[in-house]
Specification:
By secondary structure, the protein is of the alpha+beta class. The protein has a single domain (5-73), classed as Roll (SH3 type barrels), CATH 2.30.30. It contains 2 helices and 5 strands. It has helices at 34-38, 66-73; strands at 9-13, 27-31, 41-45, 51-55, 59-62.
Length: 74
C-alpha cells in the first residue's frame, strides 16, 4: 500500500540516552503505530533503515514543507 505523503510525519531527535542508533539533531520519519503511541513510544526509522520503538520523550515533533518531505522520502 502506498503511503500518502500528506500524512507522513517527521520528528527531530533531542535525546539518545541508551540509543546509540539515534543521532541528536537528526530528522527521523515516524511510522503510524497506535499501540506504541498509547505507551508513549514512537515507531521510528533509524540509522539502520529499520523501524524500532523509541521513547516519545527522545523526540520533538516538527512540521516540514512538502519540498523537504519529498527530499527525505526520496
Amino acid at each position: 500500500m502506498a503511503t500518502s505523503k500528506k500524512y507522513v510525519r517527521f520528528t527531530v531527535c533531542i535525546d539518545n540516552k541508551d540509543a546509540d542508533d539515534l543521532e541528536k539533531g537528526k530528522v527521523y520519519r515516524v511510522l503510524p503505530d497506535r499501540t506504541a503511541k498509547r505507551s508513549r513510544f514512537l515507531r521510528i526509522i533509524d540509522e539502520s533503515g529499520e523501524d524500532y520503538l523509541y521513547p516519545e520523550s527522545y523526540f520533538a515533533p516538527i512540521e516540514l514543507p512538502n519540498e523537504a518531505k519529498r527530499a527525505l522520502l526520496a
